Amino acid sequence: MKTFPKNFLWGSATSAPQSEGHSLQNGKSETTWDYWFKTNPEKFHENQGPENTTNIYEMYKEDCKRMKEIGLNSFRTSISWARLLPDGRHVNQEAVAFYRDYFKHILEEGVQPIINLFHFDMPMWLMEKGGWETRESVDAFAFYAKTAFELFGDLIKNWTTFNEPIVHIECGYLNGAHYPAIHDFKKAIQVGYHTLMAHAYAVKAFREIMPNESIGIILNITPAYARSDQAADQSAKENADLLTMKSFLDPAVKGFIPDPLIQLIQAHDLTPETIGSDKEIIKENTVDFIGLNYYQPLRVQAPENPRFPAQDPEDLFAPYDWPEKRINPYRGWEIYPEAIYDVAMMMKNEYNNFPWYVSENGMGVAEEERFVNEEGMIQDDYRIDFMKEHLDYLYQGIQEGSNCFGYHTWTFIDCWSWLNGYRNRYGFYRLESDKDFTRSLKKSGLWYKEVAQNNGY
Ligand code: BGP
Question: Which residues approach ligand 1 with their CB closer than 6 A?
């Protein structure tokens, strides 16, 4: 029996845009996702857009019961900025009523909510002004954060500012998967910098309003493994770690942007515009905990013909195709559970054993209806195996002293996934999106319930 620490969080995560539905109703204004779907629906898998998603907006009362039914003791979702503040200034009272009732129901089921503020859902009114490219976004986000803390702080004790900030930077400004889908390394760095400042100012507002509660940030961690021990490959690994991980982890936990990252950016003429007091704000507003979303590692090698100055991160670290990799064929992501142990040790040894939790981990599989048994239940043993393998390595890290306080899966009920629509499913509950949003429990939900109840397996 592998028993996890006392009060360990067993839960799941989702996000407002992927689960609420009612995306253009009840006073919510457009986000970049609504806009992009309206202008370019062909980009979205089978034309599946953000309007309906999982329909938690109507079904949250039953869904909160479902959380308890499978033993979750905690749950993360996000607030939609464009729903709460449709024009960025004025509160939508219908949104307040919805979120307050939703949160109360979560709490009534004995589930601890962790509420996040931004999950890739930039309001369109702000994007029209340049989104994270403009300094105005920092103030706008700080105002939104303050408003949310004031409106829901009596109910919610654990908050996070951003989910995977690297993703909206990379996908929006380098690889085309998020709006505005441009390719501009310098803008990407500026967007990243403003996101970091927006985070720091949100933490500042939090300390003023809720000095005794806790706040963190959720980062996607793709630990870099180099092709070889040779200096050039190792230097590619260092670059990858600096840009994809330490860029947010270090300022959030240690209160400063690492010098080698500043030097790297300077050397390639990518330095963003800053304000004199920023350094101080970052230093004074570190977090209480970190959430790490882990899906896959990053295999890197030295780039063959890098451009100088770099036009793309691939000029600093090139992808390496590891011949021994194991792949989830549906999502195309490498499966490498060992990395969870490495991350646990990194948090222990390089971040002074800072408190952290696995805030997302899971396996997306297409056409799961293939695995329905006679009773109508999806037999997702592959998902159980995937989680168990990851938990084995997490357990080992905890045994060796890493300060990890929870494990959240992605996700609770199958949900909409950006350009991939409903193709890959991750949930403990299956969603029949074309049949009135019916939810049905999968085998993995029963398994997780046992794990949560026994605090181990
Ligand atoms: C994470 C995001 C989630 C979710 C998940 C699964 O990076 O935080 O929003 O989507 O990945 O990935 P995908 O939906 O792309 O298969």
Answer: 15, 18, 163-164, 167, 220, 293, 331, 360, 364, 410, 417-418, 420, 424
Structure confidence at residue 408 (pLDDT): 99
Which class would CATH give 9-454? alpha beta
Residue 432, beta-bridge partner list = 438
Name the percent of the chain lying above pLDDT 90: 99
Using alpha carbons, list the distances in angstroms from residue 415 to 49, 310, 400, 401, 439.
12, 37, 35, 35, 11
Per the listing, tokens 């999968």 go with 442
Does residue 48 carry a pLDDT above 90? yes
Q: Where are the domains of the chain?
A: 9-454
Q: Compute the CA torsion angle 231, 236, 237, 238 (nearest 10 deg).
A: 90
pTM of the model: 0.98
Ligand 1, atom 10, residue with closest C-alpha: 417
Q: What is the dihedral of CA 137, 138, 139, 145, to 10 degrees?
A: 100
According to the model, what pLDDT value does residue 16 have?
Answer: 98
Length of the chain: 457
Query: What distance in Å separates the CA atoms of residue 391 and residue 349, rounded to the nearest whole number?
Result: 20
- 79: closest CA among 174, 129, 14, 7? 14
From CA 193, how far away is CA 275, in angstroms rounded?
A: 11
Strand runs (DSSP E) across 15-84, as ranges?
74-78
- For residue 454, list its beta bridge partners: none
pLDDT tens column, 313-333: 999 999 999 999 999 999 999
C-alpha span between 150 and 424 (Å, rounded): 37
